[in-house]
Amino acid sequence: MTRLFDTPLYPYARHPDQDAANPVRHPVIVIGAGPVGLAAALDLGQQGVPVVVLDENDKVSHGSRAICFAKRTLEIADRLGCGDPLTDRGVRWNLGKVFFGDRKVYEFNLLPEDGHRRPAFVNLQQYHLENDMVARLRTLQAEGAPIDLRGNSRVTDIAAHPDHVALTVDTPDGPYDLEAEYVIACDGAGSPTRDRLGLGFTGRVFEDNFLIADVTMQADFPTERWFWFDPPFNPGQSALLHKQPDGVWRIDLQLGWDIDREKEKEPDRVRARVRQMLGDDVAFELEWVSIYTFQCRRMDRFRHGRVLFAGDAAHQVSPFGARGANSGLQDTDNLCWKLRLVLAGEAPETLLDSYDSERVEAADENILNSSRSTDFITPKSKTSRLFRDAVLDLSEHHAFARPFVNSGRLSVPCIHAGSPLSTPDALPGGPARTRPGAPCPDAPLGNGYLLDHLRNGFTLLALGREAPAIPGTTPLGLPEVTDALRTRYLGKADSALYLLRPDQHVAARWTDATPAEIETALTRAKGGHA
Asked: Residue 518: which domain range?
């Protein structure tokens, strides 16, 4: 059977750049065509920024890898033009259950609120995500978007200069040189770019080992996230079960510290573990197996002159909470509009420093939550285990204990409350969830949703009034306000003005504002002096 990740999707083809007398300079070069690199290419390309993507492979990732994509990621995908295929193909879920031994101790709903276009999460194999993103890229190329995806093109050298970045690229026809005004390094946890520039990581490395087994089977389990502490089929450890499309299920089993990794990956041994979990009467086949340990680490800075790091190349977390790929796509969502403004001369280069400050803040938040999850799931002392087990026992019957249960705090977008791009809040009684720095929550609007109207540029959203015309912004006036909009954006106020960034984060909000005040906030949001 030919599988998606066995088929070349962007095979090597010789490019005129390889025959140029001198290195050709491009505005942006992206290194790596995983989800983060493809997101950067789509974002820049659909905004008219010429971008070259270099990838040492010619096909999507092997195996499921990342599978849980959060609501915010789906909303970013909507803006990139590929949200529908991801959501339609993926397995939607909002509910999760936590078990202790063979007892369900409680369940939770990640999106109890109505009026959102997208669910809390979809489960989708990473190769499907990449395939849909490449399909969207091909559509944009056919429409004239300046995106160039080059397979079998491995960057073997990189040197950063004050006004450009020089690269050497190896291909089946031999090496050639390129230049870029800016490089976005999306080349994964082992980032060769990071190593070649002599840059490192700081943080924690965990020693527990976990087995991932993606199995194909027909099962009656509901489309929920199930997590076990100390299950009878994996005593003293943990387990996780997720449904994926195509009859594939993700099983994640904690193995402990001192193991023989190669032995544990042997198919017969994996099958025995899975059979112990599912029972002898469930027929299944192994699709993909991996054993991993994990790290909660990041680079000190994500911007190094004209080289910017995103995704796993910049930060790594444990998989508990689905923070890896989701935070990576939020990186490019934050970066690409800033890069476009800088390249167009509409913002100072220092605007890119806000990418570093905002996404380092987000990485620290993810690392903190991921480390806490890991410490709860894998207690390192007898006292810690006694505390954890007591919390789990109490949570079955007492709601006060449930917030202390941590089976992986699931990914939510960071609120950049202290961002230098934000204007101080001027909406008394406004909801905290939409304060400056926060991402915009969705809400029904006419026959669609609010976020459908927030694409790429700055938006001046007026609630309970008309929107003034301010150069550099798109007005969106909503004199009639729905209950959902009132709850999420007005709070105690009767009307409001919101200045929204291209990445759908709030830059400023007021009860009322003069054109001069709005223009000052817009200048600030572009990295200028307020």
From this structure: 432-525
Where residue 111 falls among pLDDT bands split at 50, 70, 90?
Answer: confident
Helix (H, G, I), strand (E, B) or coil at 403: helix
Residue type, position 508, single letter:
A
Cα–Cα distances (Å) from 116 to 81, 502, 528, in that order, read: 18, 20, 34
Q: Is residue 331 part of a domain?
A: yes
How many domains would you assign to the chain?
Answer: 3
Token code pair at residue 374: 């890991």
Backbone torsion region of residue 321, taken as left when φ is above 0, otherwise alpha when ψ lies between -120 and 50, otherwise beta: left
* 148 membership: H or E segment, kind and range: strand 147-150
Does the pLDDT value for residue 17 go beyond 80? yes
Q: What is the CATH number of the domain that holds 244?
A: 3.30.9.10
Looking at the whole model, is its pTM more than 0.85?
yes
The CATH number that applies at residue 458 is 3.40.30.120
Residues 303 and 280 placed together within one structural domain of the fold: no
373-388: b or e for each residue (b if 16 or more CB lie within 10 Å)? bbebbbeeeeeeeeeb
Cα separation of 385 and 459, whole Å? 50
User: Cα dist. 197→47, 159, 177, 391, 497 in Å?
Assistant: 29, 8, 17, 46, 45
Evaluate whether residue 350 is within a structural domain. yes
